Known about the structure:
Blueprint: E1 16-19, E2 25-28, E3 34-40, E4 42-43, E5 51-55, E6 63-67, E7 73-79, E8 81-82, E9 90-94, E10 97-101, E11 107-113, E12 115-116, E13 124-128, E14 131-135, E15 141-147, E16 149-150, E17 158-162, E18 165-169, E19 175-181, E20 183-184, E21 192-196, E22 199-203, E23 209-215, E24 217-222, E25 225-230, E26 233-238, E27 251-252, E28 260-264, E29 267-271, E30 277-278
Antiparallel strand pairs: 1-2, 2-3, 4-5, 5-6, 6-7, 8-9, 9-10, 10-11, 12-13, 13-14, 14-15, 16-17, 17-18, 18-19, 20-21, 21-22, 22-23, 24-25, 25-26, 27-28, 28-29, 29-30
Amino acid sequence: MFRLLLVSNSLAQTPVAFLGSNDLYGLKSTVGAVILLPKYEFINAFSEGLAVAYTGSLFENRLYGFLDSTGKEKIPLKYHVAWDFKDGLAKVQINEKWGFINKRDSALIPLEYDALEEFSEGLAAAQRDGKWGFINKYNETVIPFQYEGTLSFSEQLAPVLKGVKWMFIDRRGTEAIAADYDQTDVFSEEICGVMKNGKWGFIDKTGKLVIPYQYDLVMWCKEGMIGVGKNELWGFIDKAGKDVTPIHFRLVEDFEKGKAKVEYNGRAFYINREGKEIK
């Protein structure tokens, strides 16, 4: 049994989901007062004042909508897939077609695309009839649907797949770095991981190779540090390609505020930018 308490608006500002004894999810305030009795298969964390919730099983009758902080269905459960709100828009899907809605449940980007990525630097990658291009928030085609694949814009450049090779374009759709790569990441801190012949290295925005192809896997550059992998183990290098740690960690995370979490010999701990363990 759950006892429903009346809670003030101040307590309902940042509710959290909880799992009830019926294996369904409800909402509680941050001080534990029940706002919504468990009734949903899942409730995601709140983003921009709304939380994705759904009912139904994975393979039949699953419907997604959005709850507000009082537990009210602000947007009815009618979508087959829904993502969190970001910058006032949420990506949703019905019958395999994707679009974006606002918080009033108006489709600002009609549900007409076969696939759709979130907006980045004002543009979203979208797929139609097997080809990818980019649209703006007015649903205008900014870069034509002509690519076999794409990643999002980052630092004014986007990787796109033309034929079997990846290249980079600018926001006008002009080629910035020629099609020469088997796989790419996106730019971060002025460099980007690219792969040739099964090995990863890094290029700058002119396409110059600044870190040779030698790694099995790579991470983004964060705070001037890059996680790199060989033989299923990880280490760190700096932007110049200099080794900061040996490649001997089982797991590593990105640097944040001068430290990164790593795992070695079954023990997790943090290291600093010199690769030294810190408390």
